[in-house]
Structures are given as structure tokens and as C-alpha cells.
Amino acid sequence: MRTVHTPQMSFGEVDISTIKLDPRSRDDIPAILVGLQHIYTTPILHDSIFEILQQIIPKKIN
């Protein structure tokens, strides 16, 4: 079984919700990262999206 999220942070890790992104950037990447940050920090969205992904991603074949 895949581990989606480990609740315990390690030394040197930064919580994704504390990362500040420049909203005035004209590049597409910060906008995508803000969207991913929102999904990751909203439990209802996070759980439902990862549930869908678990159904789509093929199981590991040994």
C-alpha cells in the first residue's frame, strides 16, 4: 500500500502551508503551486483527490 502522507515531519522539512508564493508573478508555475498548496492543505479535497488517484494508479507488480 502506498503512503500518501506521513504526519510526522523530519528535521529540515518545511510545512507546505507556510510557504509563501508571489501572487504577482507572471509565470504559470506559482499559480499551479498555489492550487496544489490549497488542495494539500484542505483535508476534504486532499482525501477525495488521493482516493481517486489510488483507483487510477496501477498497483505495483512484483
Number of helices: 2
Rg over alpha carbons: 15 Å
Sheet with the most strands, sense and barrel status: none
Average pLDDT level: 84
Going by helix content, strand content and strand pairing, the class is: mainly alpha
Broad shape: extended
Number of strands: 0
User: What is the H/E order?
Assistant: HH
Structure description:
- There is one protein chain.
- This protein is mainly α and 62 residues long.
- It has a domain of 38 residues.
- Helices cover 45% and strands 0% of the residues.
- The chain contains two helices and no strands.
- The radius of gyration is 15 Å and the shape is extended.
- The mean pLDDT is 84.
Supply the key terms.
single chain, 62 residues, mainly alpha, extended
Can you give me a brief rundown of this structure?
This protein is mostly helical. It contains 2 helices and no strands.
How are the secondary structure elements laid out?
Elements: H1 28-41, H2 43-56
